[in-house]
Write a structure and sequence with these properties.
This protein is an all-alpha fold. Helix content is about 75%, strand content about 0%. It has one domain (about 5-390): Sodium/glucose cotransporter. It has helices at about 5-25, 30-35, 45-55, 60-70, 75-100, 110-115, 125-155, 160-210, 210-220, 235-240, 250-260, 265-300, 310-315, 320-355, 365-385, 395-415, 420-440, 450-455, 460-475, 480-495, and strands at about 445, 450. Belongs to the sodium:solute symporter (SSF) (TC 2.A.21) family.
């Protein structure tokens, strides 16, 4: 590896650790500060933190690789994600920010569910926390695997070394600074990802001679690559766009909305977040598409389509710049890992340890336990990641569908329907999660395809969850007057905002 590349990556790692140390000095006095940054994030940090924790390595490797291999028809997933993210900002974010504070200053999703429905049985907290811990531990492991394989394939390092290095830096700044460190590092990582996805396709486009040569070469190699409907069906398009439904139920994304300093900041955050997302997705699409012409013109050979961003980064730029471009890949992986670690840690501390084992624990003790939890969850994830055959894409897809179906309709309907009660919430969460699991792992097929291949599990999961919420809430007693009054107060505050 070139010295300049190593130097750039070293600067990146040091910067992440420095941010963690700064955040440690700013936000470690109590659990709310450690888990939510004291609800004082600005709109820019909120927006880029949500975007960076969302996209992961899929943005720089998966999407460009899909465009390179299968053509423009793969943009349907990006279209679905843009629509889902925009609706998340518009429909969920402001009300969720207000309601989580009204509901006894809830600082985790299970916290909110228990307080929103005044659930004295604690079943909502327990089941939602179990879902978060199990899925996010595996989700975190997939990110650690990606980091290990990245160092191995790009830098020629030992897989185990790359795995431990990636996890070690993330553990350090997350353990030190908690939510504020994660959000601030996500902000920096989001900027790096944005610049990389603008710089690489622009320079590559100049090298190949402009838009016309790219279209001509792609048409010559495979005309179907220019057809947005080639290789997919109506159900296929629905499945790809259904990824956007998942945004309403992703704990590591919606927790950002709980932490913004004011509901009045959301319009600015939405403009920043959506601009970042659209430009980044266009950059990823352009990278894969221009990459087809670049490889053809240079006479190169691309063994793995998902490495097109890496190949062009190494070929087109000075080693020092290449280092920062490759740091964008690490940023995509690390920003998601850190967010997942913190959400899992908060579930373990707030929703298990404090609730069931130590109700009188002091804030300083809970912060300490939060740091211990971050380390333990990361350690389990590393142990899982030692198996190099671990599936990354499949695990991410399944977890995204699971969270989207279990929590998406539950959270969204809870913000808009006064009549919803705890039994409807519990039924919806269970119905969504179980439907996804059966759809993915059940022994059913359609025309020789598994159910998940025929139609993404998110779709039936969300439908089942929404129906269960409405039917069970209607068949059981209406919520207490105090709970309904809390909902009315949220609506009143939203009108004032």
């Amino acid at each position: 590896m070139e010295t300049g590349t190593i130097l750039a990556l070293g600067i990146y790692f040091i910067a992440m650790l420095a941010i963690g140390l700064y955040a440690y000095r700013q936000s470690s006095s109590n659990l709310s500060e450690y888990m939510l940054g004291g609800r004082k994030l600005g709109p820019a940090v909120t927006a880029l933190s949500a975007g960076a924790s969302d996209m992961s390595g899929w943005l720089l490797m998966g999407l460009p690789g899909a465009l390179y291999l299968m053509g423009i028809s793969q943009v349907w997933m990006a279209v679905g994600l843009v629509i889902g993210a925009w609706l998340n900002y518009l429909l969920l974010a402001p009300r969720f920010r207000v309601f989580t504070e009204l509901a006894k200053d809830s600082i985790t999703l299970p916290d909110y569910l228990e307080n929103r429905f005044d659930d004295h049985t604690r079943m909502l907290r327990l089941i939602s926390a179990v879902v978060i811990v199990v899925f996010f531990t595996l989700y975190t492991a997939s990110g650690v695997v990606a980091g290990g394989k990245l160092f191995e394939s790009v830098f020629g390092m030992d897989y185990l070394f790359g795995l431990v290095l990636t996890a070690g830096v993330v553990i350090a700044y997350t353990l030190l600074g908690g939510f504020l460190a994660v959000s601030m590092t996500d902000f920096v990582q989001g900027i790096i990802m944005f610049l990389a996805l603008v710089l690489v396709p622009v320079v590559a486009l100049d090298v190949v001679g402009g838009v016309t040569p790219v279209i001509d070469i792609v048409a010559e190699l495979n005309p179907n690559h220019l057809d947005i409907f080639t290789g997919t069906s109506a159900l296929g398009i629905v499945s790809l766009m259904a990824w956007g439904l998942g945004y309403f139920g992703q704990p590591h994304i919606i927790v950002r909305f709980m932490a913004i300093r004011s509901v009045k900041d959301f319009p600015v955050a939405r403009r920043i977040g959506m601009s970042w997302m659209i430009v980044s997705l266009l950059g990823a699409v352009a990278t894969g598409f221009i990459g087809i012409a670049y490889i053809k013109q240079t006479g190169g050979e691309l063994k793995d389509p998902e490495t097109i961003f890496i190949v062009m980064s190494q070929a087109l730029f000075h080693p020092f710049i290449t280092g920062f471009l490759l740091a964008a890949l690490l940023a995509a992986v690390m920003s998601t890992i850190s967010s997942q670690l913190l959400v899992t840690s908060s579930a373990l501390v707030q929703d298990f340890y404090k609730t069931f084992f130590n109700k009188t624990a002091s804030d300083s003790h809970l912060v300490l336990m939060g740091r211990v939890s971050v380390f333990l969850v990361a350690l389990v994830a590393i142990l899982i990641a030692l198996d190099r055959s671990s599936s990354i894409l499949g695990l991410v897809s399944n977890a995204w569908a699971g969270f989207g179906a279990a929590f998406g309709p539950l959270v969204l309907i809870s913000l808009y329907w006064r009549r919803m009660n705890q039994w409807g919430a519990l039924a919806g969460m269970i119905a969504g999660a179980v439907t996804v699991l059966v759809w993915i792992y059940g022994p059913f097929t359609v025309n020789g395809q598994t159910m998940d291949q025929w139609l993404y599990a998110m779709v039936p999961g969300v439908v089942a969850s929404a129906l269960a919420i409405v039917i069970v809430s209607k068949l059981t007693a209406a919520p207490k007057v105090a709970i309904a009054g809390q909902f009315d107060q949220m609506c009143k505050l939203m009108k004032q905002a």
